[in-house]
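Hi R.,

As promised on Friday, here is the backbone we talked about, encoded as structure tokens. Could you run it through your design pipeline when you get a chance and send me back a sequence?
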């Protein structure tokens, strides 16, 4: 029984020491040769058996797009993982997602905002003296 407990403790210690520990990375500390779209939301670095990595999460925010005579809004998010080989970044993987906001949805949202403003504000009447 003691042997089983010791083996279990060793296995837990091995798993705990093998985990990757991300460290926050300041945007200014990123190598200038790293390419990304949008604005950086988060950046971390970590080391594993493949070497040093830099992971960046970015977003564009809402952007107006005109395509085929139509106008709509679009927002993109990206994630990048760069492996640093001798200080030179090599893209290991990249993910991209987006949402398209149609004009009708934008108008309805604006109407809802205005409706909330109109129904929540109290009318202030001047005091007659």
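Update: got your reply. Pasting your designed sequence below so it's all in one thread:
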């Amino acid at each position: 029984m003691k042997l089983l407990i010791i083996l279990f403790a060793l296995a837990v210690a091995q798993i705990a020491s093998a985990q990757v520990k991300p460290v926050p990375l300041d945007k200014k500390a990123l190598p200038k040769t790293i390419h990304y779209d949008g604005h950086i939301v988060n950046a971390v670095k970590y080391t594993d058996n493949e070497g040093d990595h830099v992971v960046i999460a970015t977003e564009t925010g809402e952007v107006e797009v005109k395509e085929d005579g139509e106008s709509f809004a679009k927002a993109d998010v990206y994630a990048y993982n760069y492996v640093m080989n001798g200080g030179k970044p090599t893209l290991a993987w990249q993910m991209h997602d987006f949402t398209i906001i149609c004009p009708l949805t934008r108008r309805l949202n604006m109407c809802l905002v205005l409706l909330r403003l109109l129904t929540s504000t109290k009318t202030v009447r001047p005091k007659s003296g």
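One thing I noticed while checking it: Residues 103-120 form the longest helix (18 residues).

Thanks again,
M.
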